[in-house]
Protein 1
Amino acid sequence: MVVTKLKKPIEKAFNCWISSHPESYHPLDMHRFYVFVKTVARYSRRQKNSSWLRGKIKKYKQTNLTEKDIEYYCNLFETLLDFSKVRSLPLCSIVRDNSFIDDKYEVKIKSSFTTRKRRR
């Protein structure tokens, strides 16, 4: 099995998405956009934002995206990048409490940022 590393994966993902008629909003086009955003989140060294994407789209001359389409994709880009930064920790967990009868469950909220006492 051969593993190859792509040079400039962000550029490759952008070109794959933008050259495949993104103005149609077809599910496959949206999937290509999601792959592009995930690639940016994974391989970007500097933080990217919607103005970066807007400039990149405007540099690409062969697209039929209107200003409304560009605004939609820029907002979606920001939302998906923010979503990719969120940690997947549970906000609460269900804990079985032995004091209850009939195997009832009680929801206890646990903070994921608890401080621990130091042992001396």
Protein 2
Amino acid sequence: MWRPHLVLIVSLGLLAGADSAKPKDARHTAEEFLAAALAGKVEDASALAEKDHVSERQVRKLKDRLAAKAIPLASARASEKGNTALVITGEVRLTKPNPDGQDRGRLLLTLTRKGGRWLVHDIDFRSETKTKDAERRFLKKFPDAKSVGEKAGK
């Protein structure tokens, strides 16, 4: 009589596992990439990036250049038609100013969807003004872009 219960338990376990196998959206990919990079988990972060565009050296450098253990995301917008997303972090501080003296700004992560997975394609550090300009250009180029992830609609 216990066999039907065993089948039910196994079935429920398979259903629970199916949820965790769902593809991540662009926001969650960016969050995981940044968390891994800041924790020094270069291989984990690199697995979430396009090999030809974001090198392990760049990932390593990201941890060294940022004075943060975690970075909140301010927005994430994805274009289904363009298979492209723009994720913008909250303000970050660099451990050492850039040659222009700037040490505060935001990270802009451009992601592309390949084979059903979002991957980090590019990482830029920009001032507040240049961040707004980049976001405007992105939305003009990809008018179908919508907010994604936890802060969608905000």
Protein 3
Amino acid sequence: MGWLSLLITGFIFYKFYQKIWIYSRVTIVVILILVYFLPGIIMLIMSSMAFSMAMNHSSVLLSILPSLISILVFIAFLAFVIFVLPKAVLKQRRMKIDAIYNEDERANELVKLYFEYDRKLIGNIAINAIKGIFNRGKVAGGKVAGEVAQGTFNTAGTISGMTGLPGSGLIKSAMGGMGNLANKGIQTVASTANATMNTANAALNNSNTASNTKYKTIDRGVSDEELDEVLKDRMTKLDLLQNGINSLQLDETQISEVPPVCLADYYFDKSNKNLFIAKGNDSIIRTSCYLANCLYFTKEQLSICQYTFDISNGINYQGENTKEYFWQDITDFSSESGGSMQNGQKSIVIKTSGSIYQCAYIETPEIERSIKGMATYYRELKKKLVK
């Protein structure tokens, strides 16, 4: 009963991992151990009581009562673990984060919480936990698990034999027989279960994008809009425009005609296998890579300073990259919607004879005005260059 309930629970966890992602690895293992022993313990206690009563009252109901109660308690326990407890744990986590006084630290913790689901992928954790209990190697794992099950049944039979209740000796014998069957059964299915678990594990690892974007109703503890606002505030505090001026060694008088602009958005890098991809409740795809592109217009050239942030585990600065385009080399400067961008959002497209530079941005009235001003400035410069 125990190993069967464990397999059933593992399958349920795999199907509902988007509900219980908040649990830690240790918690998952503890829960799996509980469900391994819970049905057997309940059935043992109820069997002793029912057998004692049935000796004096022949009743079919009494004979099946232990099984019914075990099943009901098992279902109630799983429902509590899957649907009720995770919300309470997540709420408690959020309260602790909101209580952090330092704004930067609180922002980091909020971003961590948003992508924590993607870091854990509870399906992998549940599968690994079951593998850890059932399998310590291909064949040895089945042997260990089988012996554990046999020992559990034998111990339960011994305890029941000590109760002194009518029929306790029969229960002890029955438990011993069930232990032998469990041992053989687990050893037989262990290799098959191991192969199945490995296949499921590989499928999860190879379909990271699909598994992360499939569920768009996950309660992450941080709303999509809140994450956007946290990142926007952090970019403002970092004063990226001024940092870009220093990195590009520009004179502020050179960029006085058109104010520089910073365009920031989530970046979908298909070549990055470690990229987290989360489809929010607003159907917008957010990733664990955040790019900020600072554009500066001078009379001779367009200068760009690009900043990269890894937000999979907080807001972590990864580095900067600078580009410079002379006006005579640029064949097109424009903004477009859709295209190759993952959310169909607007982006700046800079084309030269040998390259295309594109950066997406979150649209705001202020940014739109800046981009229109840049486009106008570019057209006027091109007319002068043609003449």
Protein 4
Amino acid sequence: MRREHERWHEHDRRLDLDLDASTSTPTTTGAASTSGADASSGGSSESTGSELGLLLEGPSFRVSALEIVDPPLYRKLKDDPEECLDASSLVNGGLMSSVETYDTNLLLVAKGYDPTKDTQEFLFYPSANCPPGEGYCVINPALLPTTFVAVNRDVGSCSEVDPMTINPTNYGLLHMPQAPCVVSPTASLELKLSKDLPPIAFLLGKFAAQYSPDPEVPGRLEMATLQGFVPEANAMMIDYNFNGIPVNLWSVIRGSGHPEGCLVPVDGEPGSVSDVDMVDVDGPGWASRSEGFSCT
């Protein structure tokens, strides 16, 4: 998947899972609020006519673009079950539409942001009310964020995607965030990527992004990536709506063996491989059939 965040003035956006984010002005909790101030400086906010909320403790980033880069998603044609359609662009179009219409609002807050430190604490909020064009988001105070401590890097790359879990035709499409950048620890994370999809738990998830344009005052998180794995047993329980038809998540993974899934072409092409990964999602020695989703 790909995604971008924006720091709440509206910059141009993109979200791939490769993740990119631009910043918002300080996001708040409470009834409603806004700010025209620099989120990284903790500047004061000004009211938009509704009750002022509480500013969060650092630059706040909204995912402003989202794309599943790997795996490609295939669907059997209804009129010819022997033929398969690459439905990736249709699915990604739906994800991006949900972000652009503010139905999906994924937020990252860099708590107490300090570019001189080796680590950075982030708060992740899976949902918020972000009125289009208003320059603020409101978070339900009852919603507890996921907290993680990421590592800042001043040199080199923050990309830690294992190429063995990526279809070879897609690896070059992933973002490769370079220093100054940040990379998260490995952890599980539940995401609701659009209103048409149920929440999906991504295991062994990892996030990385590039501070931009200046790590001292990051207005965006760019070249972002998110990778996580969904075990077969979990994917078999997840259905989503595709053109009015319920579709099982595991069935769109080529080579999964699902009764409605597509077979891997026997044509010798580089991308003609199974998209099923064997991953130790339950700990060493417990490799299971899973699918790694990489987003930008």
